[in-house]
């Protein structure tokens, strides 16, 4: 009987809700850059100005070929001050009679005057990034067309608006850039709902309503539509502002977090005389935010390390006009980097971006605009209320930010706790405020070392400022290790997500970053992944795999640390693969399997056991992949089984039927072996010329020591069996660096250099050769790849065989072609150099050798020249130590220990204690 009554109640409820009026929407514009509607348009200055034409709405008019482009730092007072005039005719459905009709603008840049049928809809709105609306019910004509006229000024008549958002370090655009629509409300309706759903199950709401009504009904349903909570008989008892307070405790709701973004739907129904008159729905998540002074930030009782990034609302071909599709892509990329947080920089985002953060799971810091400058109090108060009304119920938002880097109007601070039912913490980015130290871009020794002696919660809202290939991944391992182990650290937010490169319709469609102002992203303008993407993905993996060497004693055990906040690792999955790495890069020869996920609770350590086949030692590499509870790859780690010496033993051919012939002149040793002719300088021992039966291979002039002295002297020759040995003579004072060449009957050439760096501190150490860049077609190599590395960005690559075609790409510049070709590559085994005329192979039997391919273009740095991506001399190098790279705001050595120079002891110049570089060369025609 009870079941029948419950079913009957649900049926009646569904019937009543079906009769209740929902808020109706009629879009006058499109919904994003992938769906627009043409309006009439007139631009007052710049491109295509002075004439009526049409423009897609929503859009930024610069991207449609109107007005003037300007970056926020632009000093020309008369640039970018144009206005846009819009016209659009529309009709109102006949069914909207006797309803309140509002016109809603989700975002317009900047001062926006709205007229309906020639009459002002209300006061001019000032401020770009905020949802605003007018009640236009009395201005509308029924049964005929209505004329909407909008005048938009790119720069505001309110100087505080310009100071807060128009003079900032980002592109400044104009136009109606977010959707415009009409909303129709019944005469009695709900105006606003504020919700607080806590982890304890307490559900609180404040419902503000208008008109005549008798009660409000509240219902919660889960993702399957099952009723989770039902408050059917709330008698209306409003306060003076017609706010109705609801409080209800629900049993054990599924909590919201980035790891488990559980959402519920709450429906509010307004009744009058027993009849439903208006219904609205919201998606909510149950979660609790707690800031514990001098401790940290706790979400649902778990202490959180925020792995975050700053994100502009931006797309190259449409400026600040985006779409839900773009929001989904952005959030998925962030989560693919194992991020759990995003900061809105430096203004509130599109509503659909917050919807996606709610549904896919990202913590959000939402920000009232203010970049060094501030809104005045009256303007800021109005815009704050608009931001709060639009964004307040998103469970993803866990922080508010009042401006950025000095753009904090402190008179607005009190508004946040007074108006936020959830009482989320307020941040002043770049300041010590509210118990948080958020200072930007502190050097490692200050930002970490000094932090260790401080008392505030540490959470830089911007750190490791990316530019070109610097920052982001470069330095993050040092910073994160310190952050992870510091109990006062709450993590931080990288600057920033994507390169701000805009399509210049005034310059034949080029992508413009305004020099070095915009190329700050981890991904390119169209989401091209830079090397730092994968470094961050590994460093921020919530499954931490302790480093280990795979030796003959390996028993399949890995030590893991669970760096999740809410997930047990037994909810994840683990896969392994053994590969033989063939020269063509094929993966046909492998074995694979799965491992049982270990029971390791959050923040605990444990073991993962892999049951390897008996022949596992016959493979070259072991790969371990961790996947999250949804099957998404967290990261794949690679572990070498075979070492360079093993490959060298297989690849290098020392025997042959031909004889090694030596001719000595006054200046050179000329050697012929199996069709390969080699010429060495008799004085310094350098390789001067390589030739085979096909012709000259232009690889020569080496080895030249980098940050060492080429004091090879007194060369002698001898036969060691069938092998010719050309060797320098060691002298502790004058020729302590030594060079030895061995030429085999096969034509293979062995080079062994024992050397000492010239200084105690060195930027890099290694050996250089010359090879014309114009001759290079590409390489195939065995080592870590496919992305290049820096001394302070070693994570994110994988051991394999990589084929790379030559390109001249520079990070952060057109054509955004990744992976780049030029640069350093780690853990070299061998490399096939593919030339336009001939190929050749180089093999090493030493571990930890870096391959250097030419010198990347040095993009225009700031006046401080902080990145300093220094490279050795020559063209192709084989290095024992490589250089680091800095960030836009820091030199390499201030990003942590990995960014500092190498340190080598003098070794007292004893040959047995020198650095040892051994290479083998195959210049035969078979390559």
TrEMBL record:
Signal peptide: 1-20
Record domain Beta galactosidase small chain/: where: 720-831
Single GO cellular component term: beta-galactosidase complex
E.C. number(s) listed in UniProt: 3.2.1.23
Transmembrane segments: none
GO molecular function: beta-galactosidase activity; carbohydrate binding
Family membership noted in the UniProt record: Belongs to the glycosyl hydrolase 2 family.
Name the record gives this protein: beta-galactosidase
């Amino acid at each position: 009987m009870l079941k029948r009554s419950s079913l009957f109640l649900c049926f009646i409820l569904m019937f009543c809700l079906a009769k209740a009026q929902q808020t109706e929407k009629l879009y006058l514009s499109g919904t994003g850059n992938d769906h627009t509607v043409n309006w009439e348009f007139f631009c007052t200055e710049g491109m295509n100005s002075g004439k009526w034409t049409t423009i897609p709405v929503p859009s930024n008019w610069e991207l449609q070929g109107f007005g003037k482009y300007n970056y926020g730092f632009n000093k020309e007072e008369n640039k970018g001050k144009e206005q846009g005039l819009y016209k659009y005719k529309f009709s109102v459905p006949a069914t909207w009679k006797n309803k309140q009709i509002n016109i809603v603008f989700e975002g317009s840049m900047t001062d926006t005057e709205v007229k309906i049928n020639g009459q002002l809809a209300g006061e001019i709105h000032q401020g770009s990034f905020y949802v605003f609306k007018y009640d236009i019910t009395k201005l509308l004509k029924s049964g005929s067309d209505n004329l909407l006229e909008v005048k938009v000024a790119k720069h505001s008549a309110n100087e505080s608006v310009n100071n807060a958002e128009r003079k900032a370090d980002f592109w400044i655009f104009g136009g109606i850039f977010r959707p415009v629509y009409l909303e129709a409300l019944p005469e009695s309706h709900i105006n606003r709902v504020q919700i607080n759903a806590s982890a304890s199950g307490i559900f609180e709401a404040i419902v503000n309503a208008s008109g005549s009504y008798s009660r409000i009904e509240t219902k919660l349903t889960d993702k399957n539509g099952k009723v989770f909570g039902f408050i059917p008989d709330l008698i209306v008892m409003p306060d003076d502002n017609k706010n109705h307070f609801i409080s209800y405790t629900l049993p054990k709701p599924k909590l919201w977090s980035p790891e488990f973004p559980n959402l519920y739907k709450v429906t509010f129904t307004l009744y009058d005389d027993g009849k439903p008159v208006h219904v609205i729905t919201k998606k909510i998540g149950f979660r609790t935010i707690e800031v514990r002074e001098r401790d940290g930030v706790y979400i649902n009782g778990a202490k959180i390390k925020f792995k975050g990034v700053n994100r502009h609302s931006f797309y190259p071909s449409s400026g600040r006009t985006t779409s839900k599709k773009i929001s989904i892509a952005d959030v998925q990329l962030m989560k693919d980097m194992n991020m759990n947080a995003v900061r809105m920089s430096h203004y509130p985002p599109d509503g659909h971006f917050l919807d996606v953060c709610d549904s896919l799971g990202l913590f959000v810091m939402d920000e009232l605009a203010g970049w060094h400058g501030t809104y005045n109090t009256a303007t800021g108060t109005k815009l704050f209320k608009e931001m709060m009304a639009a964004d307040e119920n998103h469970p993803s938002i866990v922080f508010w930010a009042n401006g950025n880097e000095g753009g904090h109007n402190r008179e607005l601070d009190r508004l946040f706790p007074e108006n936020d039912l959830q009482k989320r913490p307020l941040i002043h980015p770049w300041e010590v405020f509210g118990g948080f130290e958020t200072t930007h871009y502190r050097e490692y020794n200050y930002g970490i070392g000094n932090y260790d002696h401080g008392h505030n919660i540490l959470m830089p809202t911007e750190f490791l400022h990316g530019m070109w290939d610097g920052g982001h991944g470069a330095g993050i391992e040092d910073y994160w290790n310190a952050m992870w182990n510091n109990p006062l650290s709450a993590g931080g937010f990288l600057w920033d997500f994507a390169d701000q490169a805009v399509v210049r319709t005034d310059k034949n469609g080029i992508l413009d970053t305004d020099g070095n102002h915009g190329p700050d992203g981890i991904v390119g303008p169209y989401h091209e992944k830079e090397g730092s993407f994968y470094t961050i993905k590994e460093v921020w993996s919530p499954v931490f795999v302790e480093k280990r060497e795979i030796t003959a004693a390996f028993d399949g055990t890995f030590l893991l640390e669970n760096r999740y906040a809410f997930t047990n690792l037994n909810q994840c999955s683990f896969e392994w693969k053994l590969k033989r790495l063939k020269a063509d890069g094929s993966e046909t020869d492998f074995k694979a399997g799965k491992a049982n996920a270990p029971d390791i609770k959050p923040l605990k350590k444990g073991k993962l056991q892999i049951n390897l086949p008996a022949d596992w030692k016959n493979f070259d590499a072991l790969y371990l992949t961790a996947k999250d509870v949804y099957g998404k790859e967290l990261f794949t780690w690679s572990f070498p089984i075979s070492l360079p010496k093993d490959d060298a033993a297989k690849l290098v051919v020392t025997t042959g039927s031909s004889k090694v012939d030596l001719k000595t002149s006054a200046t050179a040793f000329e050697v012929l072996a199996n069709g390969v002719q080699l010429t060495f300088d008799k004085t310094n021992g350098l390789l001067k010329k390589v030739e085979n039966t096909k012709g000259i291979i232009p690889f020569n002039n080496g080895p030249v020591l980098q940050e060492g002295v080429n004091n090879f002297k007194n060369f002698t020759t001898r036969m060691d069996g069938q092998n010719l040995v050309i060797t320098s003579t060691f002298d502790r004072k004058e020729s302590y660096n030594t060079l030895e060449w061995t030429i085999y009957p096969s034509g293979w050439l062995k080079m062994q250099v024992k050397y000492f760096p010239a200084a105690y501190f060195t930027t890099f150490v290694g050996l250089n050769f010359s090879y014309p860049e114009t001759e290079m077609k590409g390489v195939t190599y065995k080592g870590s790849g496919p992305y290049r590395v820096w001394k302070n960005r070693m994570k994110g690559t994988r051991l394999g065989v990589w084929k790379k075609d030559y390109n001249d790409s520079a990070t952060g510049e057109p054509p955004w072609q990744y992976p780049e070709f030029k640069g350093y590559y780690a853990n070299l085994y061998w490399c096939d150099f593919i030339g336009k005329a001939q190929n050749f192979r180089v093999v090493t039997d030493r571990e930890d050798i870096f391959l250097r391919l030419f010198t990347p273009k040095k993009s225009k740095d700031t006046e401080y020249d902080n990145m300093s991506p220094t490279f050795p001399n020559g063209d192709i190098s084989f290095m024992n130590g490589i250089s680091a790279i800095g960030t836009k705001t820091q030199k390499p050595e201030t990003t942590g220990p990995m960014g500092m120079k190498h340190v080598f002891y003098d070794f007292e110049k004893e040959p047995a204690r020198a650095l040892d570089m051994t290479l083998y060369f195959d210049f035969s025609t078979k390559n």
